[in-house]
Amino acid sequence: MPGDDTPREGVVLSRAGKASSSKKNWYNVEYRKPEELKGNKLSIDLSTVDELQVVKSDTDQDTEDDEESEEALFNEIDFCDARKAELENWKKHHVYQEVEDYGQSYVSTRWVYTIKEADNEIHRKARLVAKGFEEDCLDEIQKNSPTCDKQSLRLILSIIMQKKWSINSIDIKTAFLQGEKMQRKVHLRPPKEANANGKLWLLEKCVYGLADASLKWYEKVKKTLNECGGTESKVDPAVFYWYNSNGLAGVLAVHVDDFLWAGTNLFETEIISKIREKFSVGKEASESFKYLGLGLSHADDKIILSQTDYVRSVKDSLN
Asked: Model's pTM, two decimal places?
């Protein structure tokens, strides 16, 4: 550890941040040695460790004890508020109906925790995820969901430059909780934090972890954009266009919960404002942001595409 030559041995429990974020080197660790630290749990930036040796564990499979120890770790880090916020989001978006447990088959859940850095602040996030692999008849469920192709993105950017529009992005919060209603019956076992003993949740929305969650979200997006006058591309169903008497007025690309859009001032006033009303919108950006893993920067008469983070990750993997 920095400033301390004492050797330590521990087991990595889970990531403490997304692999694509600035927290990619942070992991949740439980100490095994030295004896006075045994059992202590904390989050560590492994890139700051002076000398790191990876020891293969006895087993590569997760167990219930692993999940319990991971949950205990995050309880110590204090994700209580994050879990509460997630449960409130489920209620806000009318995700389920609470029903009596008469022995119906159900899908269990687990918490997925992340730590994000934004605006020089650390944000804790808890997401309640269904163990979709437990659901019966998985092979019969339609799963494929359109997302914007990178070639389509390049074509859109060319159109934007030709039209002299500015590029913008919108992130949709809790996207899957806003998807289309379920067409099949799925019961969920509530997490203990819901205090719903003897109850099950009959899902009305297709939540995180279910096989067709992305598809149900896309169906809601398509329905909403069509109602707002948009027409999906015949080549890429994740790209939508708007026209008026003067021709093309706006364009919007969909990649799950990330939208990229551009258009006239009237398009923003009449269409984008409606989208903001229809969905719970999170972060928005203009002129310079990341989309589909590409860095986009619009300045003067050009849009610059970069993959700095990807190049850095390749470089790091070769060192």
From this structure: 0.71
| E-assigned strand segments in the chain | 9-15, 26-33, 41-45, 96-100, 109-118, 121-130, 168-172, 187-188, 199-203, 231-232, 239-244, 247-255, 258-263, 281-286, 288-291, 294-299, 302-306
Q: pLDDT 10s digit of each residue in the chain, 319 long?
A: 544 556 778 877 777 776 666 676 777 888 877 777 777 788 877 767 655 555 444 433 444 444 554 555 544 457 888 999 999 999 999 999 999 999 999 999 999 888 776 666 777 888 999 999 898 877 788 888 888 988 999 999 999 999 999 999 999 999 999 988 888 999 999 999 999 889 999 999 999 999 999 999 999 999 999 999 999 999 999 999 999 998 999 999 999 999 999 999 999 999 999 999 999 898 899 888 888 888 888 887 888 888 887 787 777 767 6
